[in-house]
Specification:
This protein is of the alpha/beta class and 631 residues long. The chain has 23 helices and 21 strands. Helix 1 (14-38) packs across helix 3 (50-60) and helix 14 (372-384) packs parallel to helix 16 (403-412). It is elongated, with a radius of gyration of 28 Å. The protein starts with 13 loop residues before the first helix and ends with a helix.
Amino acid sequence: MTESQEPALAPMTAVQSGLIGRLAAQLRVDSIRCSTQAGSGHPTSSLSAADLMAVLLERHLRYDWDEPSLPTNDHLIFSKGHASPLLYSMYRAVGVVEEDELIHTYRQFGGRLQGHPTPALPWVDVATGSLGQGLPAAVGVALAGRYLDRLPYRTWVLCGDSELAEGSVWEAVDKAAYYKLGNLTAIVDVNRLGQNGPTELQWDMERYARRVEAFGAHPLIIDGHDHTAIDDALTRARSRPDQPTVILARTIKGKGVPEIEDRNGWHGKPLPKDMADRAVAALGGPGNLRITTALPEDGTPAITPNAQAAVSLPRWEPGEEVATRAAFGAAVSALAARPEVVVLDGEVGNSTHAGEFQDAAPERYFEMFIAEQQLVASAIGLSVRGYTAFAASFAAFLVSRPFDFIRMAGVSQVNVRLVGTHAGVEIGQDGPSQMALEDIAAMRAVHSSSVLYPADAPSTAQLVKAMADTPGISYLRATRGAYPVIYGPDEQFPLGGCKVHHAGSRDALTLIGAGVTLHECLTAAAQLAEDGINARVIDLYSIKPIDTDTLRRTCQETGGRIVIAEDHYPEGGIGAAILEALAGPDMPELHAALLAVKGLPTSGTPQELLDAAGISARHITAAARSLLQTG
């Protein structure tokens, strides 16, 4: 059954209306009780949206709560994650969270019901709480439903009006309209008050609507406390197969507690116990209403994952010059043999070579244009649906602009593959605005991340393939220029490993590089060898996880003398990762030279810029000689 064939929903009966009224009251009571007991939380933000969620839960959400991984279940994402008391109260209403857990473990150490929702709960798709994140991730979920799964599930998102000041929300609305995601509905709780006073537009519903319409979605303005109006809006949203709907619900913050309704200064504050007791009594006291949500239709996703599908990686000959970004494009295109692999581009696919995947599997290639936040968020949403998503763009923009999405992906513990090309001063004439010199540090800091930096085409291809099966957030840094192939086509590159070159029993020191600087280290080693100095070289293609054992052993075997060269700022980069790995009382005295980009680069040729930054072969050679003289 397609979205346009959804069965008509019968009009709401008086009995259902009464049930929804009781449910909304219970949701309010439970939101007050759990936050007051915890001594923290956001009850007023929950109270304003209680009627909206009561109607959705009773009338429109299709979900089997006993089987949260059922592929046909609807998705409900609280983009306003601070309204977690309301979400958890809904879980109690459907019977998956018991009263004791809600009232006594909310926001408590060791409990599942954290201050903002996380996938520690099986009914939560993505962690929220950083505003402007839920709707963008929902776009990825809806993309999967319409174009990949081809199932009639819907994605519902509760947004707050404050987060509509975030540009990421409008990126999401724009891309949802572009891809005709009629299976996506945003419900905006326009309660007028933010954390520190009125919101930008307050209750100017027409201005909100004009903005929504300008981005291509269908706006519906309603009274967010009128159950019939809410039901009608949700029904109308379900009837538009080719256009997303944004329901703009005018609500009152703190609704149901007259003492604080529409009063500033109550955001993020639980009701004091005496006030909470009065409010709960006025709302009818604690309830034990249990809701039976409509079950989803039967269905099977159109795409069946096959991680065992045969993948024929491209092959290159030693000495052949290939850019690692080109090797990425060839490798990810080979991965198209796996039906669950999808690729997202930020309108630079002809440079990153991600666009080559479009030729291999056009139905699994999504163009997000210059909207890097939405690029990463869509990958997260697709990952929620079980797809192996690669998102690629220039490293300077892929990591910096959507970093909050990457950080929150770590909180969500989703699996996302990011490929950043054109990294470091090596990119040349484009200058410092295009040079990613902070990306390694940023990505190393993310929970569950892997950071990879291959030096040639075969290592790139092997690492791209490994990324497809690596849980968490993996980041591959690729260079712009073409460099000689070093490794054979069957060489293996396990995550957490490294490659050792020129190892011998009389090695005087170790040179460590990755990516472009690995080639500079190899050249430096050859220069030193002309003077009878044996230098071991390490290709640190896996920066996180890092091969601590090999680094420690090599350091011991070469007298603690190491030269590290990286095309990155020194703060938090490769040198920092190595020195952290070598720290400890069991290590010999360390004599280390860290060569990194320590000034602001300019335009120039790649070799001029590498030399100016002090990370070219001649600087590595000089640093090595200095270590041997002093250490």
